Amino acid sequence: MKKLFIDTTSNKEIIIRLHIDADKYTVQKPLTSYKAQIILPMIVALLSEHTLSLQDLDAIEVNPGPGSFTGVRVGVSVASALSYSLGIPVNGKLFTKDTSLVEPQYS
User: Fold this and answer.
1) In 3-state terms, what secondary structure has residue 82?
2) What pLDDT was estimated at residue 103?
3) What is the DSSP string of 37-76?
4) Cα–chain-centroid distance for residue 19?
5) How far apart are CA 75 and CA 64, in angstroms?
6) How many whole angstroms separate alpha carbon 107 and alpha carbon 93?
7) How many CB atoms are closer than 10 A to CB 25?
8) What is the mean pLDDT of the chain?
9) pLDDT tens track for 57-98
10) What local confidence, expressed as pLDDT, does residue 53 receive?
């Protein structure tokens, strides 16, 4: 199973983790610009490093918070958009017209 983990709750760094069966590969990047501008290139680079593409993913996990308001929204939005376009679940939920997306948790 190939699963992507996204954590954008911190206002200091972004964490992207790729689970390939029992192996875990993590990329952490300190924030030097806007999260929305660096998260997708981080995901693509990590997948490329392991000769994978977005279409190879089986599931996505996202940290829904609590955390930085904007950061939580960015992570959940990216995870939900990828889930919808790839037809894979986020946090165990598959988006269909009869279900809801993963929602951020704000403190």
Assistant:
1) helix
2) 66
3) HHHHHHHHHHHHHTT--GGG--EEEE---SS-HHHHHHHH
4) 12
5) 8
6) 23
7) 13
8) 88
9) 999 999 998 888 888 889 999 999 999 899 999 999 887 655
10) 96
In our burial notation (b when 16+ CB lie closer than 10 A, e otherwise), range 39-63 reads beebbeebbeeeebeeeebebbbbb
Residue keyed to tokens 């490329």: 48
CA-CA-CA-CA torsion for 20, 82, 96, 94, nearest 10 degrees? Answer: 20
* Alpha-carbon distance values, 25 to 3, 29, 66, 88 (Å): 11, 14, 24, 20
Instruction: Kindly list the structural domains of the chain, giving each domain's residue range(s) and its CATH number in brackets, ordered by start.
Output: 2-86 (3.30.420.40)
pTM of the predicted model as reported, rounded to 2 decimal places: 0.85
Edge-to-edge strand list for the sheet holding 13-20: 23-30, 13-20, 2-7, 59-62
DSSP code for 90: B
Report the sign of the C-alpha dihedral through residues 8, 32, 38, 78, in that order. positive
